């Protein structure tokens, strides 16, 4: 897992319904709400509401 200090994609380990940990990629953007607008405008969806990783 990264610290966000260097370029690239960080990741987090989160529990799943099966109990097995899953790796979740973390892509940092300056403004999440602004970054979501074009995704939604082009037919994308928000699968999981934004949340803070407990790092």
- Largest beta sheet: strand ordering: 1-2
- The total of beta strands comes to 2
Helix and strand sequence: EEH
Q: Which parts are unreliable, with pLDDT below 50 for 5 consecutive residues or more?
A: none
Roughly what percent helix?
10-25%
Q: Total number of helical segments?
A: 1
Q: What is the average of the pLDDT values?
A: 82
> What structural category arises from helix and sheet content?
alpha+beta
Question: What portion of residues belong to β-strands?
Answer: 15-25%
Indicate the overall shape: globular
Largest sheet: 2 strands, antiparallel
C-alpha end-to-end distance: 9 Å
Characteristic key phrases:
18% helix; two-stranded antiparallel ribbon; alpha+beta; 55 residues
Structural topology:
Elements: E1 10-14, E2 22-26, H1 32-41
Antiparallel strand pairs: 1-2
Task: Report on the architecture of this protein.
- The mean pLDDT is 82.
- This protein is α+β, with helices and mostly antiparallel strands and 55 residues long.
- The protein is built from 1 helix and 2 strands, in the order E-E-H.
């Amino acid at each position: 897992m990264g610290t966000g200090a260097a370029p690239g994609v960080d990741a987090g380990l989160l529990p799943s319904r099966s109990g097995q940990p899953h790796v979740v990629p973390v892509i940092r953007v300056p403004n999440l709400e602004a970054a979501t607008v074009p995704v939604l405008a082009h037919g994308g969806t928000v699968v999981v509401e934004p949340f803070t990783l407990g790092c």
